[in-house]
Specification:
- Helices cover 31% and strands 26% of the residues.
- The chain is an alpha/beta fold.
- It is built from 7 helices and 12 strands.
- Strands 5, 6, 7, 8, 9, 10, 11 and 12 form an 8-stranded parallel beta sheet that branches. Strands 1-4-3-2 form a 4-stranded antiparallel beta sheet.
- The structure holds S-adenosylmethionine (SAM).
- The site of S-adenosylmethionine (SAM) has 17 residues, from helix 7.
């Protein structure tokens, strides 16, 4: 269970809302029951249900089980895409251990807004189900121009270009990295040129078939994680 505050030994927490419903009605927790909690800061903790009410319960933190896991230094920069599809990207990015999701505004994007709170809720749910102890950070939406202007030279920018590039598996090198994926309509020619002009940019291919934006994002992260993400 994700708790959005730093956890510590002996702490007592009142759990309410959807989390209380899950523990009381789905897991049928009673006083004395054990529950695992994480806070994305200090790691994973064992909690003991001290008291149950109709719609809430008190959990006492009993012991630390694990430190917060180390997350591979990979950013996923994606143009926002339609609701269900970007939610899916957020969920899978959380499962795969992406450090940071960076929404990037591009010219051909169909969607120009993003509900970061909703994305975070999907990330939390995926992390809880997969026993993760860390969540991806969600950056503020940034224009492609601003992203490229301030690009940190030491971070490889793997630019997924459906028109061709080095196969990602061959392009991966150690160190901080980011994957950049275009929107439904792809990047326009001027954008592709601007991306290629960044010294850290490495145009990469995900194969000869054009993938939907969300598939490209998760395929690229999977390949990078399998090769470099320990
Ligand atoms: N129109 C489809 C959609 O609605 O999702 C396809 C969109 S594709 C143009 C979106 C982005 O996915 C591209 O800008 C690129 O970053 C990435 N992409 C898709 N297929 C790719 C491939 N084979 N190699 C590299 N990048 C790819």
């Amino acid at each position: 269970l994700f708790i959005d505050q730093p956890l510590a030994d002996g702490m007592e927490l009142r759990i309410e809302g959807g989390q209380a419903h899950y523990l009381l009605s789905v897991m049928r927790m009673k006083a004395g029951g054990a529950v695992k909690l994480f806070d994305d800061r200090t790691g994973e903790w064992l909690g003991e249900v001290a008291q149950t009410g109709k719609r809430d319960l008190i959990v006492r933190i009993a012991a630390r089980l694990r430190d917060r896991e180390a997350v591979p230094d990979l950013w996923l920069c994606v143009a926002p895409i339609k609701r269900g599809r970007i939610d899916w990207v957020a969920e899978k990015a959380s499962e795969l251990g992406v450090a940071r999701l960076v929404p990037v505004a591009t010219r051909r994007a169909v969607v120009d807004k993003l509900n970061a709170e909703r994305l975070r809720a999907h990330m939390i749910e995926a992390a809880e189900q997969c026993e993760r102890t860390a969540l991806p950070e969600i950056a503020d939406m940034v224009s492609l121009d601003a992203l490229l202007r301030d690009w940190p030279a030491e971070r490889a920018l793997f630019f997924a270009d459906e028109e061709g590039g080095t196969p990602l598996a061959q392009a991966i090198r150690p160190g901080p990295a980011a994957i950049l994926i275009g929107p439904e309509g792809g990047f326009d020619p001027a954008e592709r040129e601007a991306i290629r002009a960044v010294s850290a940019a490495v145009p990469i291919s995900l194969g000869p078939r054009i993938l939907r934006a969300e598939t490209a994002a998760i395929a690229a992260v999977s390949v990078w994680m399998a090769a470099a993400g320990d």
